[in-house]
Amino acid sequence: MPRHSDCRSAGAGAYRAARWSLALATAGAVHGLGHASTTAVDLAALPIEQLLTIEVYSASKFVQTLTDAPSAVSVVTAAEIKAFGWRTLADILGSMRGLYLGNDRNYSYLGARGFLRPGDYNTRFLLLVDGNRTNDAVYDQAAIGTEFVLDVDLIERVEYVPGPGSSIYGANALFGVVNVITKSGRALNGPQVALEAGSHGTGRLRASYGVQTDDGAILVSATSYRKRGRNLYFPEFDSPGDNHGLAQRLDHDRAESLFVKGTHGPFSLSLAHSARKKGIPTASFSQVFNDPRSHTDDVLSLVDFGHRYSLAVDRELSTRVYWGAYDYDGDYVYDFPPVGINRDVARARWWGAEARLTSTRLSGHKLVFGAEYQHDYRRDQFNYDVGPHAVLLDDRRSGRRMGVYAQDEIVLGDSVLLNAGLRYDRNSSTGGTFSPRLGLIYKAREASTLKALYGTAFRAPNAYELFYEIPGAGGQRSNPALQAERVRSVELIAEQRLARDARLSASVFHNTVSGLISQTLDPAQILIFQNMERVVARGAELEFEKAWRGGMRLRTSVTLQRAHHAHTGEELVNSPRRLAKFNFTTPLLEGSLRAGLDLRHVSQRRTLAASTHGYWIANLTLSAVRLGPGLEASASIYNLFNRRYADPGGEEHAQDAIRQDGRSLRARLSYTF
Amino acid sequence: MNLFARRFRRLVTGIALLLPLGLTAQPVHEHDLKAAFVYNFALFTDWPADTIYEGGTLNICINPASALRPALNALRDKPIRGRRIALREPAPGTVRACHVLFLEATDRRAWPQMREALAGATVLTVADDQEPGLEGSIIMLGFEGNRIVFSIDTRAAGAASLILSSKLLRLAAEVR
User: Fold this and answer.
1) Which of A30, A170, A404, A612 is exposed most, by the fewest CB atoms within 10 A?
2) Which residues pair with A192 in a beta bridge?
3) ipTM field
4) For an interface test with A, which of B144, B154, B166, B167 has the most A Cβ atoms less than 10 Å from its Cβ?
């Protein structure tokens, strides 16, 4: 039956009007039943139009995280982001099993399976937004802090697929793939504004508009974020000439972002843009300490145009073309003398296309074929002194990467599933690479699943590691002879569903990374990237999730791991042996309030010179999701017990460890018209 | 009373009026709401006149391990067009006797076989949460934020000789 536009708008009108009547109807139903919660019987009595407007707390989301997937996938939903008050993608990822974070007050860093390499801008994680790659073409950076391209309010869910993902995704999917799925315009259904205020002069304003059209949806959203930042004391610089180690008003942070997304029938178009300016309080790269001019600018723009075409009921072809631009400008202050600015610049431009065919035509098989081509037509890096003008680096490059892949999910009998994938990549800097993956999934009983996984992944050195060269102190040497690094991973996973809405999973992994690209100091004490010898990481993870009928939810995990150099046996820097996560959320006052408690533990970590202490931190959020029609409010306390903790510094830092924030607050208000 | 004070009083009154609503709006459980949706789908579907109702019941087939089953079970006493609801376990051999078949992640493995067995049968298939691997279902449930939405595949409905009411088609987030 054809749908008419007048029907649709009438539906939308009813939808909006139903919000009020629904609130009354549900309230009535509840009063009639005393304090019992609304049941299926009450709901079945409501008109279906009203069912569409009711908000639920999702219990089974995690049960549905693809027990058949050849990985132990972690999923965080919009509801959790709200309940735990997470402000950045880094906050979200840090709550997931096996992941840990670093922050040097310039960028945020992500670690997994014992790896968080100094000088690495998350190049070993592939970060996708709605399936579109966000890692740029110069640094391959996955931006996860305030430099992330998207406002976290626009996230529908974040999926983290640990383990090598190169068999489908190609380069960079070394330790895992992060896929951020954005909300649809229909989820907003009208204009929405959100306002935030927090400690250290933090403020954020978002204005969004979402609408359902005849044959799709449109979402437009803009965000402005400011943080004044507090003055920071660094004992390493505690001398009269360096303001006694106090970096004043240098932790400032400012970001603007814009997101536009539209779907129309089988077509989709998205546009993401973000610009961030961050002060550098640490005087990294041997800068002069406490100079207000020291900062970095990161601007990322992404355009993605996609089409899905159903060839038959059992075959689908999806294609997309994309374009991306990344501009980086860093002002670094040096005493030449006189004191002046050195500007570090990168310009990355790329476009690409991908086609993927999914077929379930063959009984017992689910086949995926794909091909991808990307032209990095600018991978340029510059460096110059601003005044007196002197060019230190003018390196212009381009590159191409292409890949073809196939994957098949084969049903072997009633309880065994085989997932086999292979991808071949060709990269203009390092040549060809095969990445195979094999997963055997055995459903021992209805509620128990065992998985054995084997896979390899690779990462080609990026333009920065290959070609960046600046002479002198705080400088770096290029290394065009760098080879791709590879990981080989074996993993065993056991998943057990317990009763209803509870799940226990355990896994052990063994990763071997060969040719790990690492920042080191050459004999002349200049930074250089080199392929290192083999590194081995072993570990075990245990996770428990449960949802209660009353709306309480728990997700908790423990990771034990060790990563060491194969020959020397020496433990890796910034590699905690223990991680623990505890996320609990519960409704309070008959569901009018929700509390979210987020606990994280990271054990002692080796630093370049010594070590950091292990720590536990707690974050607490109280939110009122139904303050009034469309009105939501929340208050969060981060680092509730004001614990002192620090993240290891890199070779570019004078600080062996960089202290992180103490207790801080945030209040948030959002209103949907 | 000056303008500011008047506005302030209006605001306070407004908030006071809103509060009781906010406090009584209980959270609704996903399974309960989904069960209510399944019930409504059955209510707004026309089965062909020659459909067989053994024992006079409308059979909703759902995996015994499904978390949705207790919520659906609670609806047994709410008849659909005069027929009592009976919950049955889906199996390839007997799946054609279902009137509604609810599918979720755990049914993925069995689905291709069941789908073959279902060819041409007048069964309303409802897939949970846009699960990949459950392609070809007539209705797919999905999430949009914290709300539940559904999409309809008219081609699959036609193949099953079922007529879905225009109301369902109008309210669907997507009609293919």
Assistant:
1) A404
2) A208, A672
3) 0.77
4) B144
